[in-house]
Structures
1.
Amino acid sequence: MARDSSKTDNKKLKGETPKKAPKLPVGADSPTSFAEVQGAGGETHQSTNDPALTLTSAQGIPVADGQNSLKAGPRGPTLLEDFQLREKIFHFDHERIPERVVHARGYGAHGVFELTDSLADICRADVLGTVGQQTEVFVRFSTVAGSKGSPDLARDVRGFAVKFYTKEGNWDLVGNNIPVFFIQDAIKFPDLVHSVKEEPDRAFPQAQSAHDNFWDFTSLSPEAWHMVMWQMSDRTIPRSFRTMEGFGVHTFRLLDAEGNSTFVKFHWKPRQGLQSVLWNEAVKVNGADPDFHRRDLWEAIESGDFPVWDLGVQLFREEDAAKLPFDHLDATKLIPEELVPVRIIGAMTLNRNVDNFFANTEQVAFCTANVPPGVDFSDDPLLHGRNFSYLDTQLKRLGGPNFTHIPVNAPRCPVMHFQQDGHMAMTNPKGRANYEPNSWGPEGGPRENPARGTTSFAAPLDGPKQRIRSETFADHYSQARQFYLSQQPIEQKHIGDALTFELSKVVRVDIRARAVSHLLNIDADLAATVANGLGMALPEAAVAARPTIDLPTSDKLSILANGPKDFKGRKMGLLLTDGSSADLFTALTGSLDAEGAVWEVIAPKIGGVTLDDGTAVAAKQKIDGGPSVLYDAVAVLPSAAGAALLAKDAAAKDFCADAFGHCKFIGFSAEAAALFDAARIPEMDAGFVQLAKAKDAKAFVATCRALRFWDRERKVDLDAA
Ligand code: HDD
């Protein structure tokens, strides 16, 4: 379906500014709001049905004047008696809850998971058993290091947390968009996070790993370097949440009814294809639209262009695990898809935006320990630490043990237990028995049920208590090298650029050198490129616990090898002026609509433009509000007079120069030449497509299916010279 977001917004705008007060009760368009917030009884909710829609206090007391506090005389002091003022300010003062200690900035959506391939032969979990069964989900995407208000396009790992509301309780798959992690043991997690967050004395830099502390820590932690390679790749500057993969990271177990175990790793593969932006683009997007990712997801879902991810599993038995070249319990290693193929077993569609951010996205509480019967843990030491940490952090963040009563966290299946009371208890048991077994209810119930209940894999355990890292975790570089060599040349260049950029922000020269010493164990050329970029001599290679071995490369690790096949769901910016060609506009927007793409008009004035046939076209952005970094491709279609005007405008020149510098495909009318000259575009290369006749539009949209015109990058980037 075509999406012209300017139209969507206009419609919304009309809906949001009604001329007359709506007849519906407040909150009626938002089914989760009042009834849920005010409790199961919902009695106080009745006041909202008052046809007069009287404003009330939180106690339901009608308000006569909400604009003025109670004073002794018109200019007199405010009276303590004013309970209305006190209640309003008291509540406001307590609006914030602690932000997440990591993954504070996030964005969520509701959706549905449908199973397409049953795992019933190896797993007793209901959610993985019946083909066609649909399970409600809630997903929260996030960055890791930045605070709640940080920009979306920070270079960072993205969280990819999915809550499945199964018939057997909530299953949380709390993953990232990278299949490996920085550390092997949870005891190092606080140090890792402290090192990447802002430095404690000065409280900056915000949402960046480009500083001394992070590189100090990683350069002292060889195990981090596989993930560092992923982090320095374009995976950490995704174009959209919709164009990211997700990974459960750890090895989990699936258990059948007899308790037999199969190891499993979980993968989310976006049907939208993988896509990222360039670093220079990310820096500018953060200024132009810090909400770039959340806006993108919101708009896609609002317009009905629902993103879909396939759920894949890598399955292997204990005896296969022993033959793998790496320890499947080591979260810094992946299992290449060439060794254990990914079997697609279902699809997740995000189809509903939240109607209240706080209620859903902020209050959602994920925990790796939440698994239904049939899903179990492996002995990954990182996973065991997580199983403690998430529950613990929710107590602090959500204020007490009753956060499962919050609608977004509440299971959708019956909940039967004797836990009681505590802060903000919303669903309270009735009756006399609050223990089990008891003889009050039928058969003293509810009672445990060995047939339905969760069981653990009966792993025989034996071993001395010791603080030790397994020898099988010791090869820190071979998969880092495999990742690097699996990238296409332009992706390798980006990794070199990113490392050079980040280490250039590190002040201490010895930390820079120690970082490069690890690269020497990964790829000598990469190390040389980065050392050259930093203007330093090559150091000695870091001492490696195990020598790096050459592993086969894998296309699955590249973004470009797994990109989108079309321009669907992607966005083109159309720079128009008064007098722009109506024929070209109609042909181009028609082709974009046919492709299922989104387009926005950018114009000198937000009031829009008048085309050469007199048609008035609304603008979505004024030029300085719609820089080309916000678009996947651009069409520059001014009239001759318009081009002459724009040639004097810095924002219009930046629009063209950035589109060129970011290797975007650029459609243009002949009249645009004057603007390109003013923008000092050195060469109209093959990434430029002239739109002379209406039929050129279709060909231009087809050209844009490729992500970028990468041939240009080598010519526009000094680092590559
Ligand atoms: Fe974590 C949040 C993913 C290791 C402790 N983590 C959090 C979120 C995601 C991940 C997606 C955000 C959830 C949300 O949207 O609410 N974390 C991961 C992955 C890891 C990982 C993929 C490695 C494989 N995490 C990890 C370790 C620990 C934590 C080793 C602690 C020992 N993570 C937390 C936390 C957070 C969290 C402090 C902050 C907020 C929250 O849990 O609910 O407990």
2.
Amino acid sequence: ALTRVQIPVEGMTCAACQVRVQRALTRVPGVADASVNLLAHQASVRFDASRVRPEELVAAIQRTGYDARLEP
Ligand code: 9UX
């Protein structure tokens, strides 16, 4: 079974930013798919919780240079 998480992402200003974040997330082992909404500043990620933790998804976003954190 897959889990979905919404992650707020700050700093994306264009479609290329959106693609960078989306690609970074999709490359994390355990991620099934990821879609990033530029205008909503949100990433939606479906992942296998037995393989990857949400904190690792946040870290992958941060490595692309954008700011992300888990919602409280
Ligand atoms: Mo273009 Mo988005 O440099 O940062 S990729 S604005």
